[in-house]
Amino acid sequence: MIRTDNLKQPLRWGQIGGGKGSQIGYIHRDAAQRDRNFKLVAGAFDVNPERGRAFGVEELGLDVDRCYDDYQQMIEVESKREDGIQAVTIATPNSTHYAISKMALEHGMHVVCEKPLTFTAAESEELKEIALKHNRVFGVMYGYTGYPTIAQAREMVKRGDIGKVRIVHMQFAHGYHAEEVEKNDPGLAWRVTPEASGPSYVLGDIGTHCLQMGHLISGMEMDSLSCMRKSFVESRQLEDDAHVMIRYKNGAVGTLWCSAVAVGNVHDFKVEVIGEKGTIRWWDEHPNQIEYAPLGEPFRKLDRGMGYLHDAARFERIGGGHPEGLFDSWANLYRNMGHAMIAADNDAQQELASIWFPGIDDGIEGVRFIERCVESADNGSQWVNV
Ligand code: NAI
Known about the structure:
alpha/beta, five-stranded parallel β-sheet, 12 helices, about 35% helix
């Protein structure tokens, strides 16, 4: 699942958003360049062009003529250069993802975009069509999915180690926004503003991570859902807490809780998949282990890097026992995406199809989930088909 070989030459790569002080810019730069599969050569890093240029030149060492005022200028100019960027990462607030992705794809660039991908599922579907038409790779940064322990969990479910799945419990709960902290935090202020964030806050910001992870490990598709959402901080226009009940197509059921007001919780992103013969648990705060209980036996910890893991999980940057973390997970995903981009450039469609990474379909599913949750919650939590 995770490639162990690097590209012969790094892809020329640009970044839009992710400027100084942003939450997610640094990890994109670190993960993409960790294994020399991508080389940052251009950027439109900031909504404020002067600040973005100063950051690009002084702190990232880029040429001043490749630090652009805005994404339109960057994509126009770079697409005309012989040594222009081949791929671009979009790490801006949600409202901009659709327009930037569309323009980049139409100018022949591979795209890695942040989630939630767009405001509407129709927009995400359109991006898929454009990517297919131009034979471009579209990665969506569900960054927790690159852990070897996730590959192990997927493989165990696939092989039937826990039998037929009955229940999936997903949660992503933290307590950082239990008060009106957006007054002094621009990174949160846009998240609770519909014009910038879209129709939801926690459902899109963290609920989509749960959904995608639950889907990835269990391999199941949703049939219908019922959602309750609420803003406990009354000044917020968008929910800071949501609970979703899910029915899957194969008869299994699920629950998903996402919250930014769960006081005391730090990064409680957990997925538990319960089958007829066993249960698997994963928790983001301890990503080097998964817990596994076969029927009739207590939980045991399976550690990254150990010989008893399935082949799919036999990938590590350092031996078991040394902690790997989120940066490694992201670097694993960037490596796979880099290989996919080269395969697409070479029109090696079979190889392309064999390389796993979170992509446009995951992006579409996340946005559709948000749409359906909002529809349900705003209509008395009625059940809606997905
Ligand atoms: P942030 O508010 O901390 O940073 C946004 C950055 O984008 C800033 O540098 C800002 O100046 C820049 N920017 C805004 N509009 C721009 C434009 N039109 N052109 C160029 N730059 C622009 O936001 P944060 O938290 O870094 O989130 C960015 C995106 O990443 C969001 O979509 C968010 O949902 C996603 N995200 C994903 C995570 C993951 O685990 N995959 C984790 C955190 C955020």
